[in-house]
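Write out the bound-state structure for MRU.
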Amino acid sequence: MIPYCSICWDVDRVKLLDQRRLPAEELYLEIKDYREIIEAIRTLAIRGAPAIGVAAAMGAALGALDIETQDKDEFQARFAKICQEIAKARPTAVNLFWALDRVQRLAQAHAHESVAAVKERLVNEAQTMLAEDETTNRHLAAAGQVLIHEGQRVLTHCNTGALATGAYGTALGVLRAAWEAGKRFSVWVDETRPLLQGARLTTWELGKLKIPYTLIPDGAAATLMHQGKVDLVILGADRIAANGDTANKIGTYSVAVLAHHHGIPFYVAAPMSTVDFAIPDGNHIPVEERAAAEVTHLWGQAVAPAGAPALNLAFDVTPFELIAGIVTEKGIMEPPFTSSLKPYRPTQE
Ligand code: MRU
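---
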């Protein structure tokens, strides 16, 4: 049992663990206004693709509860506007759009019912999506743990644990399942500049799971691989194109190239909701550009000369050729991904 959760619904509000404050402080935000959910997603109080999806659904439910009308058409129009606002929170993780699409379809399918009934459905749906995310991650982890062997040294980038999801985690979930199956191994944790999701969050989660880890600067991965000290790489995804090209935290592509150069298997772990079947390849993935200050400053302290130009791309795209497999709740997808993913393409598209 892990005594924390990234996000949950509590009667009429959303509770979420403010990840900006970790590991120093475990503070839960209580949110009743959907605009605050947008702010929480934008500022990374909640982050990680699956968690962003759940937050979006819960934000939409909060927004629905706020709509003061009994007129069914007016309700639908105002709800659609709220979903459009939430959709602007962050551009890369497709789970955000997937979740909003799902709640909008639900609202439309029940548009003939009373406004109160649709509101109740939306609140229930958001909680269902949270529960489903945990089930999905447990299946994904069970499928992926076969990749992890006794004594391995596994490298990961960014944070993919319970914090980044509804519960259990994706790539960290795979490691967790392997550990729970009795395998003993250790983890190299990339610090993950500039916002240090590895240093702040992955170490925190691995510590709670009692899985041994060593934190490394991002630039150390090459040397460790050259020294033969990395056996496998596993990390998450924010959006996977139909051909397997994968957007994930900036620095992922570098790790993939390094792994390829050193003959180390490189795996992605993500739920099917992270696969964007509407785009053929990674060139179509919108990559978020965040404020330069996240690079030039560390916790408000300047680490570059005043006015230094900085580029802060939050994600990069790893070409499918560098990926040995994509661990999903449907099993491990193998190359060519266009074929292995195809049976899971949703029919409504
Ligand atoms: O900017 P973030 O912290 O939201 O980026 C998160 C990642 O890149 C994760 O690796 C990805 O969302 C998968 S989380 C299971």
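---
The radius of gyration is 20 Å.
DSSP finds eleven helices and 16 strands in the chain.
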